[in-house]
């Protein structure tokens, strides 16, 4: 195992951040290269715990000569977000200075990379990395994004491990990779897999795929696009050794199955549910402001018109029911119980497309 320290000079003199990547397998190893990161939204800790455990397991497997491919691991990817405490509360999703989501605005390198590929003899990955290195890194946020993207672009498989507010384990990926998603969903027993052609917003995993898709369109080629997915490792409070041990076993099975670790993986378990379109996710909003009281549990299929809970107006005493309009698998909901009218509070994976354009929340 090689540990590399990545330096991120801050936006003010005297400010400095760093994060660490861990590298397993020989650089010239023949097997596939996997990149895994956690904590991009800094306080999403189930993945940080999982990748910490995986680091220890991979170190032992490497000692035993069982790492056939390469693994790059970044267990705690966002030191900038980790430092954002105000008045006793932590805020890890948006950068304090700009308000930008840490998991949006990854760069479109395709135009520059296409020029490079037309001019010079190089691989697509080399062209993307060269185009990335040419971008300005004037701000801390740019430097963080570029550092992480530089680590991920060489990989054949990219997993960005997040968690939701309160949720079952679920995945986001591209339609293009439906078979690979089913394999990962089986090993992790993901209860929903949400697929799209383009999610919008250039989140980390989607930006990997979109760069390759745009290169395909620009060059008129068909390319073997790396698999990239976001893993939502349940809810923000689901930080437990028991859950992490099960997820670790799942990831090791997956890594063995794709040939990164030697040994017999056995057959991938069947995923609990077939993948559905991300565009078919219903975002149920609070019909009025007040106190949100949930009644139905998430982690179940609900027919249209089910009462997920209600919003209480403590002044009038009115209970306004929270209803889903479409049938779907209820996979996530917000943890906060104080809501404004119009706030998205619950998410159901349906089967028929309901939405278009930007498919991710802010
Ligand atoms: Zn996240």
Tell me briefly what this model is.
The chain has 362 residues and is an alpha+beta fold.
Describe the protein in words.
It is a single chain. With 362 residues, the chain is α+β, with helices and mostly antiparallel strands. 27% of the residues lie in helices and 28% in strands. The chain has a 9-stranded mixed β-sheet, sandwiched between helices. Strands 8, 13, 15, 18 and 20 form a 5-stranded antiparallel β-sheet that branches. Strand 9, helix 6 and strand 10 form a beta-alpha-beta unit. It is globular and about 70 Å long. The chain starts with a strand and ends in a 13-residue tail after the last strand. Bound molecules: zinc ion. The site of zinc ion has 4 residues, from loops.
Secondary structure elements and their pairing?
Layout (H helix, E strand, L loop, with lengths): L1 E8 L6 E9 L8 E6 L7 H18 L6 E5 L4 H4 L2 E2 L2 E2 L19 H10 L4 H10 L6 H13 L4 E8 L1 E2 L2 E5 L3 H11 L3 E5 L7 H16 L7 E9 L5 H17 L18 E2 L3 E5 L4 E5 L5 E3 L4 E6 L6 E5 L4 E6 L4 E2 L4 E6 L13
Parallel strand pairs: 3-4, 3-7, 7-11, 9-10, 10-12
Antiparallel strand pairs: 1-2, 2-4, 5-6, 8-18, 9-11, 13-20, 14-16, 14-19, 15-18, 16-17, 18-20
Helix pairs in contact: 1-8, 3-4, 3-7, 6-8
The structure holds zinc ion.
The site of zinc ion has 4 residues, from loops.
Give the name of the CATH superfamily of the largest domain.
Zn peptidases
The helix/strand class is alpha+beta
- Structural domains: how many: 2
Order of helices and strands: EEEHEHEEHHHEEEHEHEHEEEEEEEEE
Please tally the helical runs, counting DSSP H or I stretches of 4 or more residues.
Answer: 8
């Amino acid at each position: 195992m090689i540990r590399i320290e990545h330096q991120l000079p801050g936006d003010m003199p005297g400010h400095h951040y760093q994060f660490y990547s861990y590298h397993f397998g020989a650089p010239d190893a023949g097997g596939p290269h996997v990149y895994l990161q956690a904590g991009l939204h800094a306080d999403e800790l189930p993945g940080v715990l999982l990748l910490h455990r995986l680091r220890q397991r991979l170190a032992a497997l490497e000692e035993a000569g069982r790492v056939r491919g390469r693994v790059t691991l970044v267990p705690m990817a966002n030191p900038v977000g980790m430092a954002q405490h105000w008045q006793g509360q932590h805020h890890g999703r948006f950068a304090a200075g700009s308000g930008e989501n840490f998991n949006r605005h990854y760069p479109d390198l395709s135009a520059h990379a296409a020029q490079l590929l037309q001019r010079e003899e190089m691989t697509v990955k080399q062209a993307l990395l060269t185009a990335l290195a040419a971008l300005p890194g004037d701000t801390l946020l740019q430097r963080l994004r570029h550092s992480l993207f530089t680590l991920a672009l060489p990989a054949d498989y990219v997993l960005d491990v997040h968690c939701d507010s309160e949720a079952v384990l679920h995945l986001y990926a591209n339609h293009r990779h439906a078979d690979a998603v089913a394999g990962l969903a089986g090993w992790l027993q993901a209860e929903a897999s949400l697929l799209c052609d383009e999610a919008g917003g250039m989140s980390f995993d989607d930006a990997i795929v979109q760069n390759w898709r745009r290169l395909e369109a620009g060059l008129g080629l068909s390319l073997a696009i790396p698999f990239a997915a976001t893993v939502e490792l349940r809810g923000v409070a689901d930080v437990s050794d028991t859950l992490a041990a099960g997820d670790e076993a799942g990831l090791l099975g997956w890594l063995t199955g794709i040939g990164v670790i030697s040994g017999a993986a056995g057959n991938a378990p069947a995923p609990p549910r077939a993948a559905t379109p991300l565009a078919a996710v219903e975002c149920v909003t609070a019909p009025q402001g007040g106190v949100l009281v949930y009644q139905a549990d998430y982690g179940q299929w609900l027919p249209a018109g089910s009462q997920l809970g209600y919003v209480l107006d403590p002044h009038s005493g009115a209970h306004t029911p929270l209803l889903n309009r479409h049938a779907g698998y209820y996979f996530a909901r917000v943890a906060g119980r104080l809501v404004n009218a119009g706030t998205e509070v619950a998410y159901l994976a349906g089967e028929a497309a309901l939405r278009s354009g930007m498919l991710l929340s802010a």
